[in-house]
Each structure stands twice: as C-alpha cells, then as structure tokens.
Amino acid sequence: MKLIVTGATGLVGSEVIRLALRHPAVTSVVAIARKPVLAPANAGSESQTSKLQSVVLESWTSPYPETVIRYIRDADACIWALAVTPSQSKDMDFSDVTTICYEYTISGLTNMTAHASKPFRFIYTSGVTVERDQEKTLPFLSEYRLMRGRVENAILDFAKQHHDRGVEITIAKPGGIESPGREAVSAPFTTMLETFGHTPTVHLSELAAAMIDQCLHGITKEPLWGEDLVEIGQRALSTEDYLR
Prior knowledge:
By secondary structure, this protein is α/β, with parallel strands linked by helices. It has helices at 11-22, 66-72, 86-89, 94-113, 142-161, 187-194, 204-217, 226-236; strands at residues 2-6, 28-33, 52-56, 77-80, 120-125, 167-173, 176-178, 201-203, 224-225. The strands form 2 sheets. Strands 3-2-1-4-5-6-9 form a 7-stranded parallel β-sheet, sandwiched between helices.
C-alpha cells in the first residue's frame, strides 16, 4: 500500500509514519509537509526507512504542482493528521485557523483523489468534541468545534459525490491521546470527555495503528470513536510495536 500522511511532524502524524515504516504491507510512505520530514529516530530496527518519501508543499490551497503529484500518483490511502489544535488556535487569527483546518483539507482531498488509485481511502483525524450539527449551541470552544464539524461534513459530502470514483472516507474521533513522555490526561479532562459517551482516551500507537489498518483492509465504520480505535488498534499491534 502506498500511504500519504499529512501532519507528519505532529504527534499523531509522526506515530503513523513510525508504524507505517514498520508495517510490511505498507510499501511507500509519502509525507507531505512544509519542511522535509525525516524518519522517526525511534522507528526501531524493524522499520524500513527507505520507504519514506518526504515531499515539501508550499501552497496548500492551490492545485498541487507536478513535483508533488508525481509522489502522490496511484496512492492507495491518506491519513490526514494536519490541523490546528484548540490550544494552538488561541494565539492565531481564527480565519487562519479555518484556512488550515478547512481549506487545506478539502484542497488536499480534491488534489489527491484526482491522481490516486481506486479505491482511495481517506482517514481524517478529528476529535470526540467536534460537532457536525451546526445548529447546536455549545458550552465551550463553540466556534472551533463547529468549524471542525464543517470540515467533517464537507469531507463526507465529498465522499458521497465521488463514490463512483472509489473514494472511501471515515473520520477518527478520539478523546484524549495518551503517549509515553507526554503529560497524562488529567482526571477532570477525562471526566469531561466521558460525557460524550465514548471511551475517553486512546493510546497514541493504537490510534495510529487503527487508522493504518482501516487504510489497508477497508473502512468498517464511520465515524471511528475512541472504543473503535482502541479495539482495532490493539488487534493490529504487537507488543513490540507500541511506542515506549
């Protein structure tokens, strides 16, 4: 499988790359970013770092240039892990946040499907608090959560409109993400996440492995909630694969 990864330098994207380089069924990993992406230093002896192809993209809202298209051509899947987090958004103009979260994503999906294989599986990394219902009144982070919900709606609409072109989409909606070396998800935050009715936290490796598994074997559910990601991820991972 030829896999495209965006957000490759972030928490989720870098773990997707680490596990993809270790997976024998993944033959090529195309990391698209604003700067060159190196293989994770903790990829392990079982990884095949030669599978990684780093592609620098400068304009994310324009038609992709041939220098990028030649790498994404005939790709089988994409895991889109590029977004502005709520904490990052506090220090940014919200129009810039929207451009990165919404316009980059829809442009990427459009560009990729024009040159990808059929079927083409696209997995968007979102979160349990993101709200698709634009009529809802939300008690916190309303503007951000609704904007991310519009992204989800647009992606799903795109899939319906391009079903005949083999576009398959699901959205991963984890709660808190736990990872070694990262501050543990606090008890109050976990309690808040539990109010959404799904498994409140997921291990970073399980999240990444679950998305890779859906790319490889087919999308089984939309959306993928925390409990789905934990179940699929634990089934797909060996003990040695977990990030330590």
